[in-house]
Amino acid sequence: MFRSSSRTLALVVLAALLACAAASGAGAWRFHHKNPQAPVVGLDEYVVMGWVGWDASWYARIAEKGYDYRPGEQSSVAFFPLYPLAIRAVTALGANVYQAGVLVSLLCGPLAVLLFLRWARRLVGDTAALHAALLLALYPFTFFLYGVMYSDALFLLLVVGAFLALEKGHLVLAVALGALATAARPVAPAVVVGLLVRRWEWKRARGERWSVVDLLPVLSALGFGFYVLYLERHFGAPFAFVDAQAGWGQMPGWEAWLKLPWFKAVFHEGNAEVKLRLLVHALLTGVALALVIPTFRRLGWGYGAFCAVIVGIPFVATKDFMGMGRYLLSAFPLFVTLALLLGDHPRVRQGLWALGAVSLVVLSAAFALDHYVS
C-alpha cells in the first residue's frame, strides 16, 4: 500500500512541477517580451527567470555579497542565512546564483512533500496520509516548493525531517534538523515547543520516564541563536531582522494586531487585484486558525502547539495577512487534520484537489509575470 501511495504522490508532484514550470516559463516569456529591447535568452532560462522574483533578489545578494543592515530600512538581515548559504554552496559547483537558488528549491520542495507522506503514515492510516499529502502537493501556494527561489522548500524539508526523526525515536537527529530549520526561518519558538511537547507525548505513550535528555529539543533553537549572535557581533543589533521589517511597513503594534491596514485596503483604497489577494490570504489564515483546535484533538498536543505557534507568529506580525498563504506551508500538520476532517466528504476533498491544481498553474504564471502573489 505504501509503495502504491508513494508512486501516486510522486506522479502527482512530478505533474504539478512540470505544469508549474511550463506556466512559469510562459509567464516569464510574456513579461520578458513586453520590453522589445530585452535580450534573447534560451528556453531553460525563461523557466529559471519565472521562478526568480521579489525576495529572490535579496537571497541572491546575501549569497554573493553577505549581509547589510540599515536601521529602519529594507535590509538583507531580514532573511535568515541557511538558504543563502545553500545557494552559495551550489554556486561553487559552477551554477550562477539564480540557477543555484532554483536548484536548491527544486531539490528540497518535492522531497519535502514525499517525506511528508512518510511522516503522516506514522500518525494516521495510509489512505488518510495519502489524502493529506495530495492536499499539500496541490495546495495553491505549494508552487513555492516547485522551484521558486525562496527558502520555504528548504525549511519545510528540514522541519518535516525533524519531526519524522522524532517519531522514529532519533532524538539527536531531530534536534540537529530542527536547529538547521531555525537557521532558515524566524520561527524557532514553534520548532522548540513542537519538538519538546511531542517528545514528552512520545515518551508517555511508551510508558517511559522523562529525563534530562528529553530536554534536548531546546537546542533546536541554536540556528536562530547563532544568527542572533552574528547580528550582534557584526551590526550591534541582535534582532536587526525585526527592525528591518519596518522597511516593508511591517512593525509590531496595535494597528498590525487589529489588521487595520487590511480593512483599509480591502474596503477603501485597494484596487480589485489587491482586494482579491488580501481576501484570499485572510481566508486561508482563518481556515488555518480553525484547524488548530482539531489538530490538538486528532494529532496531539505537540503538533497542536507547533501549529498554534507557527501560524500565530506571522498572524500577529503581519499587518494585512499578506504572505500568510505561503507561510501556512510550514504548518504542515494542518493538512493531515484537514484530510481527517474530510474523510467522509470525498467530493469536497476532490474539489479541493482540482481547485488547488488549477491555482498552482495560475499562481505560477502570475508570479512569473511579476504580480505580487505572496
Sheet/helix structural class: mainly alpha
- Outline the biggest β-sheet: none
Tally of individual domains:
1
Report the mean per-residue pLDDT as an integer.
89
Roughly how much helix do the residues carry, as a percent range?
A: 55-70%
Order of helices and strands: HHHHHHHHHHHHHHHHHH
Q: Distance N terminus to C terminus? A: 36 Å
- Rg, nearest Å: 20 Å
Shape: globular
> What is the beta-strand fraction?
under 5%
Query: Stretches where pLDDT falls below 50 for ≥5 residues?
Result: none
- Helical run tally: 18
Number of strands: 0
Descriptive account of the structure:
The chain has 374 residues and is mainly alpha-helical. The chain has one domain (2-368). Helix content is 68%, strand content 0%. The chain is built from 18 helices and no strands. It has helices at 2-32, 43-50, 56-65, 82-91, 97-121, 126-137, 152-167, 171-182, 188-205, 222-235, 240-243, 254-257, 260-269, 272-299, 301-317, 324-327, 333-341, 346-368. The two termini are 36 Å apart. The model has no long low-confidence stretch (mean pLDDT 89).
